[in-house]
Amino acid sequence: MKDKNEKTYRILETSLIFLIGVHIFFNPFPQLTAIQEISFYGSVLILVVLLSLKKTTFSLKTPLTTPFILFVLWAIFGLFFALNKPNTIHDIYAHLLKYLMVFFLLINYFNSFRHFEILAGLIVLSTTIFASYLLIYFYPILGNPISVNLGFAMPWEIPTNIIGILSLYPVLLAIYMLDLQKEMINKLLVGLALIVLTFTTLATQTRGTILAMFVSIAVCFNTKKHLFLIFLIFLIALSFIMPVKDRLKPAIIYNKILQDDRGQIWYTFWEMIKAHPVTGVGFGMQTYDDEKLLNKYNQLVPSSYRQSVPHKAPHNLIIDITVRTGFIGLALFIFIIYRFLWMIRVTIKNGRTRFVRVWAVGLLAAFAAWLIQGMFENTASGPAAMVLFIILAMMTILWNLREETEDPSEGLIGK
């Protein structure tokens, strides 16, 4: 009977890992909310069962836990001053607490070298499938010329800039995975995924994504000079072949800076911040849908910077967080970033294996890319926000593995 019970518990735990893996796998895919909801709540239900039977351990102890708690408590406190209380309650749960639950599920059940590699592989595989479908559907099937930004005017909730965020992270993961593969067939498969993901990223033709790509490569260069030099040459060659080269010309970039309406957008939201500097307008993002509210603050902007029709999103991560949670909320978010960077520094310096040290550099590059992209797009919710929490979770897993002495890469990484 005891053996039978233990087998049942192992099946339940395996099912939990499978479900959370499914949840991560379908993150890039639009309009598949039902699958994500079933996988999320299914994994939580199994966790509750295992905890009630005392057959699993679930730790909340990480260097990020304190800043997470402080940020959540501040968002809840802001509810008392929120302009849209019902939506603030919804978004605190749906776009903060649920993401944190995924974070803790990942660090508790993907907490080994092998599971870390599986997680990275899931992200690369799922995004490659999504990217392949998108490229085929958008160009050959819909008949769009290659000069059109990938995903432009598509009838789904993932705009072009967000596609670039979803595709760039697995590009970096794939480069690191390529160095880990021993079998030639595996190298070819990962290499093919890397080509598809790189092409997808460049096809978005967004300057923020291209900038983030080159910065992330620079961050990683010291640990993988041979791979990143080859990839950089490939990237530059592909950039000259694809239409994105036209968007990178100095004159085009200069004119874009002069004509970009983001300055006007930020000016309007700055007026909103000035009116609600401490608590913000509330965590709920539907507050931005209030046209009267936006028009009110748009009228405070000097006429030369005033928008004819106010945008309903700041298109900047820092401004977005400040508008919704005030300067205190921004400070707490920076506290999360500080702890994350501290974990990276300690892991790179003191990690006992090349695996954790080099992957920590990779996650630093991934975070730098995500942050740069967040300066030009709304990344605090949806699939883009999930990318951040996955990066934080993978770094926490490495943090927990930093004292391990058995290097699964056996010297393959860091050469």
Secondary structure elements and pairings:
Blueprint: H1 2-25, H2 33-52, H3 65-77, H4 85-109, H5 113-141, H6 160-180, H7 184-203, H8 207-220, H9 225-241, H10 244-247, H11 250-259, H12 262-275, H13 291-298, H14 317-350, H15 354-374, H16 382-401
List keywords for this structure.
415 residues; 16 helices; 71% helix; globular
H-E order: HHHHHHHHHHHHHHHH
**Total helix count?**
16
> Roughly what percent helix?
over 70%
The poorly predicted ranges are: 250-254, 410-415
SS-derived structural category:
mainly alpha
Instruction: Indicate the overall shape.
Output: globular
Distance between the termini: 50 Å
Taking Cα atoms only, what radius of gyration do you get, to the nearest Å? 22 Å
Strand segment tally: 0
| Sheet with most strands | none
Kindly report the average pLDDT value.
87
Strand content: under 5%
Question: Quick gist of this model?
Answer:
The chain is an all-alpha fold and 415 residues long.
